[in-house]
Amino acid sequence: MKRYLILEDGSSFAGEGIGASIISTGELAIQTTNFGYQEALTDPTNAGKILVFTSPMIGNNGINAIDYESIDPTVKGIIANDIALNISDSENFEDLSSFLKEKKIPAIFKVDTRALVHRLMEEGTIKASIMDTNDEHAFDQIKALVLPKNKSAMVSTKNAYASPNVGKTVAVLDLGLKHSMLRALSLRKVNTTVLPYNVSPLDVKNLRPEGIIISNGPGKPEEIVDKIAPILDHFYGKYPILGIGLGFLVLSDYLDFELVQLPQEFNGINYPVIEQNTNAIWQTSMNIDQLVLPDSVKMNMNREYFDLHSELNAGFWNIKDKIVATAFNPEGAPGSHDADKIFDYFLQMME
What we know:
Layout: E1 2-7, E2 12-19, E3 24-31, H1 37-42, E4 49-53, E5 63-64, E6 77-79, E7 93-94, H2 96-102, E8 106-109, H3 113-123, E9 127-131, H4 136-144, H5 151-155, E10 161-163, E11 169-173, H6 179-187, E12 191-195, H7 201-206, E13 211-214, H8 225-235, E14 241-244, H9 246-254, E15 259-275, E16 281-292, E17 303-307, E18 313-318, E19 323-326, E20 328-329, H10 341-349
Parallel strand pairs: 3-4, 4-6, 6-8, 11-12, 11-13, 13-14, 14-19
Antiparallel strand pairs: 1-2, 1-9, 2-8, 3-9, 5-7, 10-12, 15-16, 15-17, 16-20, 17-18, 18-19
Helix pairs in contact: 8-9
């Protein structure tokens, strides 16, 4: 079935439709990962996005139960050069087409993704729709639609829940966390309680945590910082605090560091960062559109991490104030596990 990706600037790309046959509108985002499409599709940080995969083909590995980053994906669609329609028969895997229909996600393949990526590189953020036509009425529809804000409120858990274990107790503020983060904590025997983004300081205090994590998630820090600031006002400097992704941006904003908008959002697994003290280079997974201007970091950090593309600050930690924050996802998934020792640094602060 022929379907169209239409852009708010009046251009369109034709291709073959697959998955759900619904009309969907979202923000176009380049996804540079060469593997791990399931993790990208189910990552809550991609809420509201139409993902454009730069990999020549996706879908050949199928979908399995252990690589979900959330049970109910919140992406608005996917665009690909090619999608594998068949996989080897196995009860443990589901083909991508069936998964997309089940989760009500539309997709288009046989699209010139190289031309589309060039357009995105030139214009930055673009609103787009997946539709059955590319006529004047379709363009009128996309221009009239307003994309939602404060997406963290949409994807955050509504009720607290536990991920029990036998070690240190950590409270996680859910701005759109990935299951992989909970797996990384569980491997370290961390006893985790996941809390809504708007939890009160008293509710956190009553858990008697030994550390706090502000998770990754979608959206802008200014949309969420007023909900997280009361938690930081109460616990900053008292409990170890780890910020990841959006959590990194919120913590940086709270500390009055200057955030710099990236020319193009980092969304993939191939972003190298250098650790200032050791000159070690880590290959990291990022899903973020802002980093920190190094000159705006006015406090002494024990370690800092810099993105090699932009030379902007992509992470820091300070033992005195008990803070660790990274723009990159330490758990990878998909991606390298070079940075997973960040969790170990955080746990050491609790000793």
